[in-house]
What does this fold into?
Amino acid sequence: MTFQLGNTQDELDFYQKSLKIDQTLADADPKNTQAQRDLSISYVNLGDVTLQLGNTKNALDFYQKGKGDRHVCSVSHGAADSFEGRRTDCKSRFDN
It folds into this structure.
């Protein structure tokens, strides 16, 4: 799916729906690392969009939730490093 620039509300709606699906799949099979990784990525995506909308507190909350599954995320070629950078950037914006 492709999003047009400036249509972050549509992105937010899409990622919220995606999170519900990923949460259901992760809950159904907690040992499925792909489902857990997808859930973690959904939180990061929601954090990114929420940050674009200027809501740093909610973005930080999403990044923190994604961090809970960071060990699963790390199997994806540096995804954990990317996540940690986003979380740190968001936290620094929130703290200022």
Observations:
- The helical segments are 8-28, 33-52, 56-67, 70-73, 79-95.
- The first helix runs from residue 8 to 28.
- Residues 9-95 form a domain with the Serine Threonine Protein Phosphatase 5, Tetratricopeptide repeat fold (CATH 1.25.40).
- Confidence is low (pLDDT under 50) at residues 70-80.
